[in-house]
Amino acid sequence: MSNPDVPNFDEMFEPDGTVRPAYRDYANWLDQQEPAAMRRKNAEAENFFRRSGITFNVYGEGDGEERLIPFDMVPRIVTGSEWRRLSRGIEQRVRALNAFMHDLYHRQEIIRSGRLPQRLFSNNEAWLPEMVGFNPPGGVYTHIVGIDLVRTGPDEFMVLEDNARTPSGVSYMLENRETMIAMFPELFSRIPVQRVSDYPRRLAKSLAACAPSATTDKPVIAVLTPGIYNSAYFEHAFLADQMTAELVEASDLRVIGGRVQMRTTSGYKPIDVLYRRVDDDFLDPLTFNPGSMLGVPGIMDVYRSGGITIANAPGTGVADDKAIYSFMPEIVEFYTGEKPLLPNVPTWRCAEADSLAYVLDNIADLVVKEVHGSGGYGMLIGPTSSKRELADFTKKLQARPENYIAQPTLALSTVPIFTKAGLAPRHVDLRPFVLVSPNGVDITPGGLTRVALKKGSLVVNSSQGGGTKDTWVLDD
């Protein structure tokens, strides 16, 4: 989403070529390295990832082709003071999201106030009537949140998307760091980088704090995966292993005696907290999609009776809707009484006649997205599209305007990647990972930096040819 007429903010280099403060220690180290040695290290990184099994599946290509997640070994570096400012904005937003979820499934005060239109929910498949009037254990709806951020200047961060349903990518954040430590241990003795390796421990602690109130012993936590053919299966298995939690599929679970229980070698054992990586529609065939083989028949009855915690709560997908996203400044102010510390990207709601007219007149300059889209699919990047693509998308907009939002093209920041010819700038975004429990909000210092590896590319998603970087938050 970059505007070629506006200069990009280079996070490592000033316009005159001098190195910015965050990167000075790294640049000094890099200047001392032999180019040939760095090229060997770059090849080692790919082999490390291949041995670790860090892959994802691409549906629709070769029956789910497995691909290596591309990794770039030049870290993205953020100063401690920058991170503290970001963290305050992230925490404010996540608290507002959780309060918003509670309100949507109770009195809907924000709709009564006129701040949000009723149509956003009456036509929204992610809003679940089964959650109306129900209070999840600990009052937490959004246990794990990924807030996608873009940077356009020295102190200019904006929220691009909210991921409150089942945010993915944290395993790549952890493996990126492990790879960097394995390849460049001397860097971490020279530069004070805040650690991310304790995320699984923090995740397990946060989930345990959300266990049902009737839980008396140490809560039993399990990760529910759709199975080995899911695109994020590596992450499901990785997190279960790192948390010392159980990795389960639907066939391992059944409702017995009013509890969700998992099959073990010594019989069935109750689960207290289920970190599910299965979408709402497939979670309970008795409540949602009757043809689902990925969920647990009756789990919603157990949930509503207080017998299990489901993370994230069913129905939180409403917050991922890009039409809802466009109202986040109003949502933050309504529930916190404060102005948002992190702004949204300006957004036109095509469901509104004036906005639609503007978007149709300026489609060649805008980014247009489906309100329920994800992964870089179903979107149009106007400045890089052909006349045929613009015409086709115009027809889609005119046919279903409520299905789209539009945003301006931005001068997204760049971070260098390592190429055979040396360092070269590429566009990036950032997904910090946030844990929410009755004990508070816990933000891991860093997150997943996704990078568009192709020159001039604006799409960072791995399914669209993007890669990842290690993200360093300095301990200053």
From TrEMBL:
Domain Circularly permuted ATP-grasp type residues, every copy: 75-452
A Pfam family recorded for this sequence: CP_ATPgrasp_2
InterPro entries xrefs: ATP-dep_Glu-Cys_Ligase-2 (IPR051680), CP_ATPgrasp_2 (IPR025841), UCP005522 (IPR016450)
Protein's name according to its UniProt entry: Circularly permuted type 2 ATP-grasp protein
Organism the protein comes from: Alteraurantiacibacter aestuarii
Species classification: Bacteria, Pseudomonadati, Pseudomonadota, Alphaproteobacteria, Sphingomonadales
